[in-house]
Write a structure and sequence with these properties.
The chain is an alpha+beta fold and about 500 residues long. Among the domains are: about 5-75 and about 155-230 and about 315-360, FAD/NAD(P)-binding domain (3-Layer(bba) Sandwich), CATH 3.50.50.60; about 240-310, no CATH class. The protein contains 15 helices and 23 strands. It has helices at about 10-25, 55-60, 65-75, 110-120, 130-135, 155-170, 215-220, 285-295, 340-355, 365-390, 395-405, 410-420, 435-445, 460-480, 485-490, and strands at about 5-10, 35-40, 75-80, 80-85, 90-95, 145, 145-150, 150-155, 175, 180-185, 190-195, 200-205, 205-210, 225-230, 240, 255-260, 265-270, 275-280, 305-310, 315, 320, 325, 330-335. The strands form six sheets. A seven-stranded mixed β-sheet has the order 5-4-16-17-18-15-19. The chain has a six-stranded mixed β-sheet with strand order 9-2-1-13-22-21. The chain has a three-stranded antiparallel β-sheet with strand order 10-11-12, with no helix packed on it. The radius of gyration is 23 Å and the shape is globular. It starts with a strand and ends in a 5-residue tail after the last helix.
């Protein structure tokens, strides 16, 4: 049987990202019909406003002009994340996009820099990263004197969903307004056959994509796929969100994450407002107390009442089950400390497109999708967890409990390797690479006992000469960038 009728359950960011991508890649096939069901009566989470650079690849796939995107979503530029209080009270460090320096003679740049520091050199690795320097100076352009500037965006996720809806509907996606009240399964295969709406309408499909949020209407409600709970490592189970007016002055081109009593606070500056939130553990902090603390720490006047979200960190045991694939919050949840929520939606879509069946559903393909997706979640989990267990900034019962929790073996191995030899153990397909791991580990206060022996083969004077060149190139590149506000003003002008 040909898989021609694709039904997406739920809109929001995940649903419309999926609809836009499928209509772009698969929508032109003869006989294929893509339907998205959503209800305006059911709200969306809509707090995923900070992204990572991979969002640009997704937008290019959809042939979206970047300036048009920024105008449509009130977007601003993100060059990385400033972490405050994580490595020590009053201390901050910057996790930038892009790379530190350049690898030399078969060893990662950070090994050369570690030798430089040991021999009395400066202890500022951020001098070797343009994006960190640009964020500090409040400057941005897509390209500098010496090449591209790695960047992502802050944007209004609900506006992005609406923007993608227009693109998807232009390419033939049919939107159906309605609330699903029943799910029918095929008696023989157990696959989902159709969904019934409150209006009485019934929509049949060959393949279903569950974008129904935390409730997982199909993947869990109908198919009972199960859930792997990671709260033993990441115990935060609440978030309170509250937008505020922008602070006076330039819009900062970076996200800020501040370690707090029982979790952390995000600050995401858009063109028209600032997104704020407090991610916390309800065992140590009440909802009312969290809302009150967040409200007292805003840069500007609040624009809405606080909104509390509940979650359990982890993932579905099967993200693809039968003829249903779950995306977004329906598939799992990792707190957005490193802005990976939209990225995980995107990679799920791209992985699905690569394995999408023409006719029958191959169990081996399903197994591969689940294995790769779960492994991706595990890799992101370890990176997020690293911030918690290496933090020394806040001394409260919550932080003590997190730091004392047993580590996954996969993470313990990484940390031991870095402490011993400065080695950074990553996988070829892992999203967070050596630069990401190094800056977080160093920024949180970990100091390796050694560096790679190949580094000693370079003459000290030559090493210092090369480092000086890299610092100079970054300084020249930075000087060529306009203020972030000037860049945003240029994107506001529509082509004549």
């Amino acid at each position: 049987m040909s898989i021609d009728r694709i039904v997406i359950v739920g809109g929001g960011t995940a649903g419309w990202m999926c609809a836009a991508a499928l209509s772009q890649v698969l929508g032109k096939s003869p006989g294929r019909k893509i339907t998205l069901i959503e209800s305006e009566a059911i709200g969306t989470v809509g707090v995923g406003e900070a992204t990572v650079p991979s969002i640009r690849e997704f937008n290019r796939l959809l042939r979206i002009d970047e300036d048009e995107f920024l105008r449509a979503t009130n977007g601003s530029i993100k060059l990385g994340i400033e972490f405050v209080n994580w490595g020590g009270a009053g201390q901050s460090y910057f996790h930038p996009f892009g790379y530190f320096g350049t690898d030399m003679a078969g060893a990662g740049f950070h090994h050369y820099w570690l030798r430089h520091v040991r021999e009395g050199g400066d202890g500022d690795p951020w001098a070797y990263n343009l994006e960190a320097q640009a964020a500090k100076a409040g400057r941005f352009a897509r390209t500098s004197r010496h090449g591209p500037v790695n960047h992502a965006f802050h944007f209004d996720a609900s506006l992005y969903a609406g923007f993608l809806r227009e693109k998807a509907e232009e390419r033939g996606v049919a939107r159906v307004e309605g609330e699903i009240v029943d799910v029918a399964r095929d008696a023989e295969s157990g696959h989902v056959a159709s969904v019934a709406l409150k209006s009485g309408a019934r929509i049949e499909g060959d393949f279903f994509i569950d974008c129904s949020g935390f409730r997982g209407l199909l993947i869990e409600g109908a198919l009972e796929s199960g859930y792997r709970d990671w709260s033993q490592w990441l115990p935060c189970d609440r978030a309170v969100a509250m937008p505020s007016e922008n602070a006076p002055g330039e819009i900062t081109p970076f996200t800020r994450s501040t370690a707090r009593e029982s979790g952390w606070q995000w600050r995401i500056p858009l063109q028209n407002r600032t997104g704020n939130g407090y991610v916390y553990c309800s065992e140590y902090l009440s909802d009312d107390a969290a809302a009150g603390l967040l409200a007292s720490r805003l840069d500007g006047a609040p624009l809405a009442e606080p909104r509390t979200l509940r979650f359990v960190t982890g993932h579905r045991r099967k993200m693809w089950n039968g003829n249903v694939v779950a995306l977004g919050l329906a598939s799992g949840f990792l707190e957005p400390l490193e802005s990976t929520s939209i990225h995980l939606i995107q990679t799920g879509i791209i992985r699905l497109l690569g394995l999408f069946p023409r006719s029958g559903i191959d169990p081996a393909v399903v197994e591969r999708y689940n294995r790769d997706t779960i492994h991706e979640y595990e890799l992101v989990r370890d990176f997020v967890l690293t911030h918690y267990i290496t933090s020394a900034g806040v001394d409260t019962p919550f932080w003590t409990s997190v730091r004392d929790a047993p580590l996954p073996d996969s993470l313990a191995e990484r940390l031991d390797a870095f402490r011993t030899s400065g080695s950074i153990l990553t996988e070829p397909t892992e999203f967070f690479g050596p630069t990401n791991w190094f800056v977080v580990l160093w920024g949180q206060g970990l100091r390796p006992a050694d560096y790679h022996p190949i580094v000693d083969g370079l003459d000290k004077a030559e090493l210092e000469r090369r480092l000086a060149i890299l610092r100079q190139r970054n300084a020249e590149a930075l000087a060529s960038l306009p203020p972030h506000g000037a860049f945003l003003a240029s994107t506001a002008r529509t082509p004549s």
